[in-house]
Amino acid sequence: MKTYLITGGCGFIGSHFIRHVLENSSYSSILNLDALTYAGNPLNVIDIEENYPDRYKFIKGDITDEKLVKEIFSQNEVDQVIHFAAESHVDRSFDDPMQFMKTNVLGTTILLNTAKEFWQKDEWISKRFLHISTDEAYGSLSLGEDDKFTENSPLKPRSPYAASKAAADLLAQSYFESFEFPVIITRSSNNFGANQYPEKLIPLMILNMKKEKTLPIYGNGLNIRDWINVKDHCKALLAVLEKGQVGEIYNISGEQEFDNITLVNMLCEIVASLTSKTKDHFKRYITFIKDRPGHDLRYTMDCSKVQNETGWKPSNNFMKDLTGTVQWYLTHDEWVRSCEFSLQKWMRAHYDL
Ligand SMILES: NC(=O)c1ccc[n+]([C@@H]2O[C@H](COP(=O)([O-])OP(=O)(O)OC[C@H]3O[C@@H](n4cnc5c(N)ncnc54)[C@H](O)[C@@H]3O)[C@@H](O)[C@H]2O)c1
User: How far are the Cα atoms of 71, 172, 342 from residue 224, in angstroms, in the given order?
Assistant: First the structure.
C-alpha cells in the first residue's frame, strides 16, 4: 500500500487527482492536507469520502504550520508528496502578494524540508516529491511568435502569483541539486473542467451567462491560453510519478490554444445550445474591461518531453470536453451556491461589478 500526501486536495485539480489515483491504483491510500481557504470546497471530495472510507483521510490544516506538517510525517508512512496547495488566482495576487509568498513559497519550503527530514536517505530511491507548477513561471510569448517554452527556458514571471510559483519551483529544484532529494516538477497550462472555483475564466463566464450578467474580458480579448482538460492533466501527473525522472521538469499542456474572445464565443454557443436562448443573446453581455498590468499575452509549451518519456498524450477533445464542462456548471446548483458568497464579495471589490 502506497501512501500519498496530497496538499490542496479540496481544490480544483487536487480533488480530481485524488479521485484519479484511488480509481486507478488499488494499492494506494490518500492523506489530503487542505486549509479549506475560499478555494477549497469539501463538496469537491464528498464522493471520495463516501466511496473510499478506508483509503482516504482528510486533514484540515495549513502547509505553513510546520508543527502540523511534522506531526503528519511522524504519524504516517508517507511515500509520495503531491503538492498542489497554493494561492492560485493571478488577480488576487495583485491584492495580497504576501499571502501568495507565504503559502506558495514558505509552505513549499516547509513541505520540502519536513519530507527531507523524515525520509531516510536510503529510502529516497522509492520516494517522490511532485511539485505542481505552472506555465506562467516562464512569462509571456509575443502574439504570433513561433517559439515554445521548453523545460530549459528561463523563468520570467510577471505577476506576484507567477513569481511565487517560480520561486517555489527554484526551491524545489535546489533540493534536488543540493541534496539529491527526489523532486519532480511539472508545469501545466490552463486547466478546465468541473469543480473549478468560479473566479476563473471558464466557470465565471458560464455562470454569468446563466445569471444573465456581464461577461468581463480583460483588454481586447486577444490573449491566448493553451487549455488542458483537468482529467488529462491528472493522467499526466500519475504518468510522471510512475515514469518520470527525479530532478527533472515536465511541461504538460493540452495543445489546444484559443484567444479569450474566441473561447468566450464558443461558450456562448454551447450555453445557447443547452438552453432556449441564442448565441447572440449571450454575446451582448460581453464587456471589455481595463487590462491588468503585466497580463501575459501567450504561453505555449513544448510538451514533447513528457510525451516521449511517459507515453502520455492529451486527448484533444476540446469541444466535447468543454460542452461537458458547461453542462456540469449548469446543473450543479448546490456546488455553485457553496461558492457564491465569498465570490460575490470579491468580484464586487475587484471588478466593481
Ligand atoms: N488551475 C490551473 O489552471 C493551474 C494551471 C497550472 C498550475 N496550477 C497549479 O496547480 C495547483 C492547484 O491549482 P488549483 O487550480 O487546483 O487551485 P485551487 O485554488 O482550486 O485549489 C487550491 C487548494 O489549496 C488549498 N490551500 C490554499 N492555501 C493552503 C495552505 N496554506 N495550506 C493548505 N491548503 C491550502 C485551498 O484550500 C484549495 O483547496 C496550484 O499549485 C496551481 O498553481 C493550476
Answer: 43, 28, 28
Quote the number of domains for the chain. Answer: 1
Tell me phi and psi for residue 236, to 5 degrees.
-65, -40
Strands 257-259 and 224-229: antiparallel
Out of 88, 108, 228, 252, give the residue to mutate to test ligand 1, the one with the largest number of ligand atoms within 8 Å of its CB: 88
The Cα–Cα gap between 305 and 152 comes to 11
For position 79, which CATH number holds?
3.40.50.720
Q: Which of 209, 252, 350 is nearest to 292 (CA)?
A: 350
Asked, for residue 208, whether it belongs to a domain, the answer is no
Burial of 218 (0-12, 13-18, 19+ CB in 10 A): middle
Q: What is the pLDDT confidence band of residue 145, given thresholds at 50, 70 and 90?
A: low
Read off the amino acid at residue 292: R
DSSP string, 106-140: IIHHHHHHHHHHHS-GGGGGG-EEEEEEEGGGG--
- Widest CA span of the chain, in angstroms? 63
Question: Ligand 1: does its nearest atom lie under 6 Å from the Cβ of 13?
Answer: yes
- Full domain range(s) for residue 52: 2-192+230-255+295-315
172 lines ligand 1 (CB under 6 A): no
The pairing of strands 249-252 and 28-34 is unpaired
Identify whether 271 is part of a domain.
no
Closest by CA position to 25, among listed 237, 341, 260 = 237
Residue whose Cα lies nearest atom 25 of ligand 1: it is 8
Strand partners, 289: 218
What does the pLDDT look like over 42-54, one tens digit per residue? 999 999 999 999 9
237 and 248 Cβ atoms separated by less than 8 Å:
no
Catalytic residue among 62, 87, 136, 321: 136
Phi, psi values for residue 253, rounded to 5°: -140, 165
Residue 83 C-alpha cell reads as 503538492
Please report whether residue 223 resides in a domain: no
Domain assignment present for residue 162? The answer is yes
Dihedral pair phi/psi, residue 153, rounded to 5°: -65, 145
Question: What's the confidence (pLDDT) of residue 280?
Answer: 97
The pTM for the full model equals 0.97
